[in-house]
Amino acid sequence: MKIEFSSPLSNVENIIDSLKNKEGSLLPILHAIQKEVGYIAPQAIERIAIKLKQTPAEIHGVISFYHQFRTSPPAKYKIQICRAEACQSRGSRQLEVHAKSFLNIDYHQMTSDKKFSLDSVYCLGNCATGPNIRINDDLYGRISNEKFEQVLSNVDRELK
Ligand code: FES
C-alpha cells in the first residue's frame, strides 16, 4: 500500500474513470482510492465530486459516515483488536480498555506521533488463540496487556 499521495492524481483519475459509470459507484471508488493511496486526499474528493457531478460536501458526508475511510495519511502501524465473540470470551474487552489507555487514544484515532492507530475488527479467523490483534498485515495471538505492550515496543523499535 502506498502511503503518500505523490503522483497518484492520475491513478485517482483512472480509478474514478474506471468505476464512475457503475451503479452506486461512489463507495467502490472510495475503497479503490484508499487501497491505492492509503487515504482519500482533498484533491481526490474534488476530482470525485466533479466526475460524479456531486458536491465535495456530499462526498465528505459519505466519507465521514464510514469509519474505515481516511482523509489524511494513515498511522505507520494500524492496530486492530478483534471484538468478535471468541476473542471477547478470552479477554478482548479488557485488552481494548488497556490498549486505549496505553496509547492514550480511542478507536478510530492515531497517536500524536502518528505511529499507531487503533480500530476494532470482527474476527481475524484465528479464534482459538484469542484475544487477537492485527498490526498492519501481521496477526498476534493470546494478547495479554503485557504482551500488547511488548509487541508494540518491538514494533516501535523496528521503526527507529
Ligand atoms: S473471534 Fe477473534 S479471531 Fe475469531
Automatic annotation (TrEMBL):
Any Pfam family: 2Fe-2S_thioredx
Entry binding sites for [2Fe-2S] cluster: 82, 87, 123, 127
Keywords: 2Fe-2S, Iron, Iron-sulfur, Metal-binding
Named cofactor requirement(s): [2Fe-2S] cluster
Cofactor note: Binds 1 [2Fe-2S] cluster.
UniProt GO molecular function: 2 iron, 2 sulfur cluster binding; metal ion binding; oxidoreductase activity
Family recorded in the similarity comment: Belongs to the complex I 24 kDa subunit family.
Protein name in UniProt: NADH-quinone oxidoreductase subunit E
